[in-house]
Amino acid sequence: MFGSYFSKEKKIFIFGFSHWKTFVEHWFPNGLVINGPFRISKRSFGLKWRWLILFSKKPEVYVWSYNSPKFLEKFCKENRIPLVRVEDGFLRSIDLGARHTVPLSLCFDRSGYLYFDASGQSDLENLIQNYDFDSNPLLMKRAERGMAKLVESRLSKYNISNDGDIEKLYGKKTKKRVLVIGQVEGDMSIIKGCDCSIDNNAFVRIVAKDNPGSQIIYKPHPEVLSGIRKQPRQSNPDDVKDVALVLEEDIILSDCFSTIDQVYTISSLAGFEALMRGIPVSCYGMPFYAGWGVTSDRQTCPRRTKKRSVVEIFAAAYLLYPVYRNPFTNAKMEFEDAVQLLGKLKRDRK
After folding, report:
1. Which of 121, 211, 247, 266 is deepest in the core (most CB within 10 A)?
2. Which residues contact 162 (CB under 8 A, 6 or more apart)?
3. Rounded to a whole number, what is the distance in angstroms from the first to the last CA of the chain?
4. pTM of the full structure
5. Beta-carbon count within 10 A of 341 CB
6. pLDDT tens digits, residue range 292-332?
7. What separation in angstroms does the CA of 30 have from each of 25, 54, 85, 223, 330?
8. Other C-beta atoms lying within 10 Å of the C-beta of residue 12
């Protein structure tokens, strides 16, 4: 690792990345990637690492999500070294990340926050708040076409789910239909994106209470349905069958949205996918697409003062914020290329 350290290449130090995420090296074709440990302590982050970083030419430190201890953040701040947080993009793969599937998109956020963190302004929030969308009609046309193409393709962030016979699953529609989106409890998107502690079952009961006389349909997270995330760490969906129809198969979101009148979520990306289809969305937390006037929000964010359209939010989140890369050739892609590749991968899988 250190044999070529004294080359003139830009030095990229990465910390907090799981052992299988070796793919990240391909995202830095113009730099030397130096892998740090997944978990670092003050002891392991000793003189060796400090010396290597400080004596590099324009070093950058990349951390996966929030896997960065305070002393690393302090070290970077005191030495004016960029600390970049990395997360999956919104159009990710043909399978779950928990199954070690290489992503087609990543988000590199230099603000100190990530898009799901409502406690501070991420680069994505800054884009939505401050980007002059009116001055870029070509971007907006591209966003309109891209959003329509994504909806037409029936693709989502993850694409492992099955097609479903909704009439058979939901039954005959006789009343208002409300879909509740489950999430992984303990996930950072809830911890950082919601100002109170809540689990899926409690959320389902809140939605049921707020919508008397409606048919409540609960879609647990794919990782819960697949058995990757298990009780007791996750609330048991069976416990809310008295107030909701619980989907026991992992059905593609595009089908789940069929005949739905309203979607409720804590902070899931599925809420934005519902907005793309013109379905009203209520958010219990503050995901990146809330607070702009397109959702009904329980939580507020005083930083988000602009009124934005779904197309503008899409342009920021899917076109401007992430980076796309072909996992087979490692070549950089655009959003449109990623949609085409994911569609092919999905068709080939059937």
Report:
1. 266
2. 249, 250, 251, 252
3. 41
4. 0.93
5. 18
6. 999 999 999 999 999 999 999 999 999 999 999 999 999 99
7. 10, 19, 19, 35, 13
8. 21
Structure confidence at residue 1 as a pLDDT band (50, 70, 90)? very low
Q: How many CA atoms lie within 13 A of 136 on its CB side?
A: 14
| Token pair belonging to 203 | 């959320």
State the Cα–Cα distance between residues 272 and 263, nearest whole angstrom: 10
Strand partners, 216: 178
Going from the C-alpha of 235 to that of each of 120, 190, 205, the distances in angstroms are 29, 14, 13
Give DSSP secondary structure letters for 98-145: GGTPPPSEEEEE-SSS-TT-TTS--HHHHHHHH--GGG-HHHHHHHHH
Q: Give the span between the Cα atoms of 206 and 168, in whole angstroms.
A: 26
Residue 343, amino acid: G
Identity of the amino acid at 104: L
Distance of alpha carbon 49 from alpha carbon 14, whole angstroms: 11
Label residue 40 by pLDDT band (50, 70, 90): confident
Q: Beta partners for 11?
A: 32
Burial of 188 (0-12, 13-18, 19+ CB in 10 A): middle
Q: Inform me whether the pLDDT recorded for 200 exceeds 50.
A: yes
